Amino acid sequence: MNICLCEMNHKLARQYFRKFVVDPALFLDDQPYQPYQYTEEKADAIVERYRQMGRVYLAVMLGDEPIGEVILKN
User: Fold this and answer.
1) Angle of helix 10-18 versus helix 40-52 axis, rounded to 10
2) What is residue 42's predicted lDDT score, i.e. its pLDDT?
3) How many alpha carbons fall within 13 Å on the CB side of residue 17?
4) Which of 4, 15, 32, 35 is deepest in the core (most CB within 10 A)?
5) Is residue 18 a contact partner of residue 38, using CB atoms and an 8 Å limit?
């Protein structure tokens, strides 16, 4: 098993978010659960948002497949 980090780009974000499922445990008790609905535009916007904020946006890769994300600030 080969796990590594690489810079998240539009292609990887589209792959990752195509299969993304929101964890309901991340919502506060008073927030309604909102399932994620994929579009290429949403995936691209996430990458651009983190770039504009100056964040380091990384993809957790298992071989050629993005299986997670890491966002570093400061």
Assistant:
1) 130
2) 96
3) 20
4) 15
5) yes
- As beta bridge partners, residue 60 has 5, 68
Distance CA 35, CA 48 (A): 22
| Pairwise pLDDT comparison (6 vs 35), residue with the higher score | 6
Instruction: Collapse the DSSP code of 22 into the 3-class scheme (helix H, G, I; strand E, B; otherwise coil) and give the result.
Output: coil
Write out pLDDT tens, residues 62-71. 999 999 999 9
Predicted structure pTM score: 0.84
Alpha-carbon gap, residue 67 to 41, rounded angstroms: 20
List strand residue ranges (DSSP E) for the chain, in order.
3-7, 56-62, 65-72
